[in-house]
């Protein structure tokens, strides 16, 4: 891992998802997590399911996060990078 990654990123990608809340996903804070919860996504593993449904395509996933959570490009990239790193580590 790069020394430029955040602690939140290292925490997220360093262990299994279990029941992690959406706000524990890098790039997603309380507001964006709330936006996703309103659409029925409540846990990080559900967000991983969306990524897998999109065939692990980061570009599509970033667009999905922007459209469904209201994330900006930077937040969507942080989220996609974390989900991709998690997949590389555990799947």
TrEMBL record:
Entry GO MF terms: DNA binding
SMART domains the record matches: BAF (SM01023)
GO CC terms, sorted: condensed chromosome; nucleus
Metal-binding recorded as keyword: no
Localization per Swiss-Prot or TrEMBL: Nucleus
Organism: Rotaria sordida
Keywords per UniProt: Nucleus
Alphabetical list of InterPro entries matching this protein: BAF, BAF_prot, BAF_sf
One GO process term, biological-process aspect: chromosome organization
Superkingdom, natural source: Eukaryota
Protein name listed in UniProt: Barrier-to-autointegration factor
Composition-biased stretches (Basic and acidic residues): 8-23
Region (Disordered), start-end ranges: 1-23
């Amino acid at each position: 891992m790069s020394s430029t990654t955040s602690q939140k990123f290292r925490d997220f990608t360093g262990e299994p998802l279990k029941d992690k809340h959406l706000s524990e996903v890098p790039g997603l804070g309380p507001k964006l997590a709330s936006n996703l919860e309103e659409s029925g996504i409540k846990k990080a593993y559900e967000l991983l399911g969306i990524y897998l449904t999109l065939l692990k395509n980061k570009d599509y996933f970033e667009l999905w996060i922007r459209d469904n959570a209201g994330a900006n490009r930077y937040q969507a990239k942080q989220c996609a990078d974390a989900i991709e790193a998690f997949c590389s580590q555990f799947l």
